[in-house]
Amino acid sequence: MPETPHKGSLLIIFLTVFIDLLGFGIVLPLLPLYGEHFAAEHHLTSAEVGWILGLLMSSFSAMQFLFAPIWGRLSDRFGRRPILLIGLSASTTFYAMFGVAAAWHSLTGLFIARIGAGIAGATISTAQAYIADTTSKENRAKGMAIIGAAFALGFTLGPLIGGTALLAGGQVALSPWPGYVAAGLSAVALLLAAFMLPESRKPGEETDERRWFDPGALRSALSTPSIALLLLTSFVAVFSFANFESTLSLQVEELVQQHGEGEIASSVLQSLVARVHGWGYGKPDDVVQIVVFMAFAYLGMVLTLAQGVLVRRLAGKISEGVMAALGAILAIGGFAWLARASGQGDFTQLLWAMAVEVVGFAFVNPSLQSLISRRSDPQRQGGVLGLGQSASSLARILGPICGMRLFKESPTWPYWTAATMLGVGLVMIVVAARGGKDYAAPDIVSPSAQ
Description:
This protein has 450 residues and is mainly alpha-helical. It folds into two domains: 1-199, MFS general substrate transporter like domains (Growth Hormone, Chain: A); 216-438, Growth Hormone, Chain: A (Up-down Bundle). Helices cover 78% and strands 0% of the residues. The protein contains 16 helices and no strands. Helix 3 (46-78) packs parallel to helix 6 (124-134) and helix 10 runs parallel beside helix 15. The longest helix is centred in the middle third of the chain and has 34 residues, at 227-260. The radius of gyration is 22 Å and the shape is globular. Residues 207-214 and 443-450 have low confidence and may be disordered.
């Protein structure tokens, strides 16, 4: 193992995060199917099944919310590499448990698998801290975009791999193979990190000896100019996106069902349904699930192009504040278009609106993370970025609850709500970008610091 990071370190961190996030992309679209089937075996009422599914969907993010600051502070003290290895080991174990739970039809096992995967996945803040350790302030935005690109690729290819594993087993909602495939991919990421990823913190570097969740450390982070507002803005942005993300499968399902009843004339949807029928899948539930997989893959593809191409090319040429504001404007327009497409039942418009909204979100998220990193004390970046990850996780807990509840009232309400909230977020972005400065150590002041 090399003692210090080299140029290839960012490539290795990208590959490990990407491969691990493939497991997330494989499992996410399947959760409602598995949870609904296993809950039905317990003879629960429809309302009880709804609560069970809500808790199951939020358990992953709930664990990220609780554990991201812990992993961040542990990485500040013991190093980034060992924490990343622990997270990848746990991901391998709990994705395998997901497969076992599917084979045994165990609702309890499904919850344990998702809770454990959430704890393991909370180490994403450590990966962000690793990038912050190994990039300059000028290249920080490009570095943070690596996480977004890895997530987007995992989100794109995960549903495709999961759908293949699911259908290859001959069962729609019962096959354990998607879980086993996700575990295998996480094991590959673990081996890659174990043999090729160096530690990013310098030997002998002082560490923070404070306790976990030390109120003084929290106050110190939030007292940094504009950090509190940036964290709140990050929460608003992710909450808005979660309203859309959580209701997407329900929206696609509704449009496919309307197509079956002859109410929708979208040529794109007709073509997709005809292709699915041509593959030999004629049951309505199979058609819905396959089209949902396609929609998630399309969503991830757009996010990949936005993060991996647009953001990386614009980063450094446009300030993070301007990038985040531009992204918020695009996302607001995308949400409004989603509401219009949903109200009209137009699948083609829905796809275009999804692209606009996702590009906007791709601009906002890494820009906010970069600003938070630039304005934080390097000795506490792990903890501060952990707080940012916790804010995002809290938004992913509350966003789906809000989105699904609003969707039951009207399919357009989640998108109008998201547009309104992100309008407030746009104002906060402008205020935070103008009201803060990069962190500068008392004895070392960068000549390029503004």
